[in-house]
Amino acid sequence: MHALDSPIAFFDSGVGGLPYLEAARRLLPAERFVYLADRAGFPYGTKAAEEVRARAVGAVRALVAKTGPKAVVIACNTATELAVDAVRDDNPGLIVVGTVPAIKPAAALSRARRIGVVATEAAVAADYLTGLASAWAADCELVRIGDATLVEFVERRLLGSTRDERLRAVAPSVGAMLERGVDAIVLGCTHFLHLSEEFASVAGPDVAIVDSRDGVAARLASRLTEEGLLRTCDGRGAGGSPDRLFLTGPGDPGPVYGGFAERFGLSWAGCLP
Ligand code: DGL
């Protein structure tokens, strides 16, 4: 039984899901949220599919046991592409919302019929992406770029970076896609949403930068509505209890996760196995 006032749980391999949490909060201000960064499993994008599946199933099990959520958002393209079915099979009856590259909106915007997708190596190679492309962008050329270095940059060095460093970090991927004539770029790794503005700046005004955060928030709202689980009055209580951050692996959040927690209004709640 998933009660109306249970929290909504987000998870990612690291800090990538935070812009998705922010979009969901904007749309659903009465809900309470918990967030798990699978720090011990980071990065997912260079791991074998089997390992990502095991991490994702384990992370959701730990979240369910600790927080009893009414819905789980897999705020990670790699985990969704490789493990959404496994997570659903493991949690019958629980709302599980995935995150996949926003190919459909990009196809609606591209005049050149050439779309770039920048994501993890595992996500760009997954059959799931090929399926999305043939379903929504069959007449477009898809330029797939895997950028593990950029994932690492966001997770480890984003906080405290200069704008110049951020622009330099996105430049190789953007350059490779522009060379191939794309006029729409899909941010197909949730980590990259932290750099949306830098992507737009380097790509220039003629290239649309597309992501899935609003689509995922809307899907979450509609699944909650369908199940009669959408809160309409504030679930935080009079004290305004803050949303909680959990991490896998031992140790306190340190300056990086502590800094992200502060930036996204989360309070450190402990480690999960
Ligand atoms: N943020 C993740 C994604 O959307 C994966 C990053 C990683 O762990 O490699 O794919």
- The CATH class of the largest domain turns out to be Alpha Beta
Structure summary, number of beta strands: 10
User: Can you list the ligands bound to this structure?
Assistant: D-glutamic acid
CATH topology of the largest domain: Rossmann fold
**Architecture per CATH nomenclature, i.e. the level-2 architecture of the largest domain:** 3-Layer(aba) Sandwich
Oligomer category: single chain
- Total domain units: 2
Spatial order of strands in the largest sheet: 4-3-1-2-9-10
Roughly how many Å is the radius of gyration?
18 Å
- List low-pLDDT spans: none
Average pLDDT across residues?
Answer: 95
> From N to C, what is the helix and strand string?
EHEHEHEHEHHEHHEHEHEHE
Overall shape:
globular
Residue share in β-strands: 15-25%
How many helical elements?
11
Distance separating the two termini = 24 Å
Give the proportion of residues in helices: 40-55%
Sheet/helix structural class = alpha/beta
Q: How is the main sheet built? A: 6 strands, parallel
Structural commentary:
With 273 residues, this protein is an alpha/beta fold. It has two domains: 8-99 and 214-272, Rossmann fold; 103-211, Rossmann fold (3-Layer(aba) Sandwich). It contains eleven helices and ten strands. It has helices at residues 18-27, 49-67, 77-90, 103-109, 121-125, 127-136, 148-157, 163-179, 196-203, 213-226, 254-263; strands spanning 8-12, 33-37, 71-74, 95-97, 114-119, 141-146, 184-187, 208-210, 243-248, 266-272. The strands form two sheets. Strands 4-3-1-2-9-10 form a six-stranded parallel β-sheet. The radius of gyration is 18 Å and the shape is globular. The two termini are 24 Å apart. D-glutamic acid is lined by residues 12-14, 16, 42-45, 76-78, 119-120, 123, 151, 189-191.
